[in-house]
Each structure stands twice: as C-alpha cells, then as structure tokens.
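Workshop exercise sheet. Pairs work together: one partner reads the sequence aloud, the other fills in the structure field after running the prediction. Swap roles for the next sheet.
Pair: D.N. / O.F.
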Amino acid sequence: MTQPSPPASGVPTPVFFLAGGTGISAETLGNMLIGQFPGVPFRARKIPFITTVERAREVVAQMDAIHTDEMKPLVFSTVADEAVRAELIKTECAFIDLFGTHLDTVERVLHVNAAHNVGSVHGLGDRGRYEARMKAVDYAMEHDDAQSIKALDQADLILIAPSRCGKTPTSMYLALQQGLKVANYPLVEEDFDSHQLPAPIRPYAGKCFGLTSTAARLSQVRGERRPGSRYASLPQVTYELRRAEALYAMHRIPSVSSASMSVEEMAAVILQSMENGRR
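Structure field:
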C-alpha cells in the first residue's frame, strides 16, 4: 500500500475534531496525539454536536472537499451514535475513531453492551457527578483570589502562589474536570515578610498546594498586565518567588512550577500529590 506524500514544507495538515457533544474529549485526545509531531504544522477545526446522519453527511462532504492525493486531512472522532459514526467513517480522510474501537474492547471485557449515549461521554449520564462538578465550579468562582474566605473547611484543595502564577485557571480546570472544590489564595507583600501562612488558610495547611514559576516567565506575564511597573520587575518577582518557595518548604507544602507546564499537566501533578497524601 503506497503512503501519501508528506505535505509540502510549511503547509499545515488539516485536522478535524468531530463529536456528538461539545467536542472537548475529541479535541483533548486529538491534540495529545498530534502534539507528538512538533515539527509538523496543523490547521485544526472542531465540529461538535453531530447528532444526525444528515449532519454527518454534511460534515463528510466538507472534509472530503479538501482531501487530495497530496493532502489527506486527519479526523479524530468521539461520536458515540453508531448510525452517525457509520456515516462519518465513509470519509476519504484518515479517520481515527477514538470512541468505537476502545468501546468494543471494554464491552468484551465487561460482557455488557454500551449505551452509546452522548450524555454519558460527557458526564451527563451520571447526574449526581454532573451536579457535583457544577457546585465545584461555583465554589471555585466564589473563592477565586481570596474573594471569599468562608467555608474554607469545605475545600478539597487550596492553591497558594504569588500573583499571576496560574492559580485561577488551575482551580477552574480541577473544578470542571474533577469536581474538586478548590479555593485559591494569593500571597502578597506582607506574607513574604512573615514565616507564617496567611491567617485565613493557616488552619488548612494540609489542604494547601503551592504554585511557582521562573522569574523571567513571571516578569513577562506581569509585564503584559502592568508594563514597566515594580510589580512586573525582575527583582520584585525574584524576591516573591524565593520567599514563596521558602514558605512552602517551611510548612511542607508541595508545589509545582507553572513556567513550562500546561494547566492539564499541573492538574495531574496536583492530583497525584493529593492521592499520595491520602495514602
């Protein structure tokens, strides 16, 4: 079987993420796979809510319209509905079924037929889990950047860090994806002059997790918000990071650097730390 020639240098390979729901899973898994080819340019498009055979035919027509012998688009699909999936598979593009193949394996192991329910793929099949995630999101929003210090005893996790180290996106990701109630608390000038944790979170040191960064990265991020300010200056961020790291070490608070890690990667490290702490 002859393989198609690689695309001309600099020409992005089209990538489609197809889903019967929001497309978050297809996009996440697909990006994880194409991320293994850092030297190859891609042009990605997500097509969510493909719920009928008619819509599937329209999508196939759109994808096949840009298929050529020299350019074969990649298609990553998490569509659960069998009839819709059967229509999508007819595409001339390279179709990667992220759902069907693995689902068949699980069915064989469990000796149970899957429901092929779109809601189940996105967590809606378990209403209780879905509601818990929404409550966690509400909690994270209420306790973002110490806007509220009420009900900290209910927190599963308290993120602490100097400003702009990534507390908010990490909190929201853990709430939405894992259903964790996450508060985040900024370390400010007076905290760096003390060897103690800020008073509101002091009783909950066992729930705390620290974020840090590199001075260069943090200065750059702060500079985009307040260019030329002391807040963004290299000496100031260097001081804050050193004091924060000393505080973490003194109180045995685990930490991770956000300088070169994605939110997903940081969340994985935090979850592993929480699991190890429970053990």
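Discussion prompt: The chain has a mean pLDDT of 88. What would you look at next?
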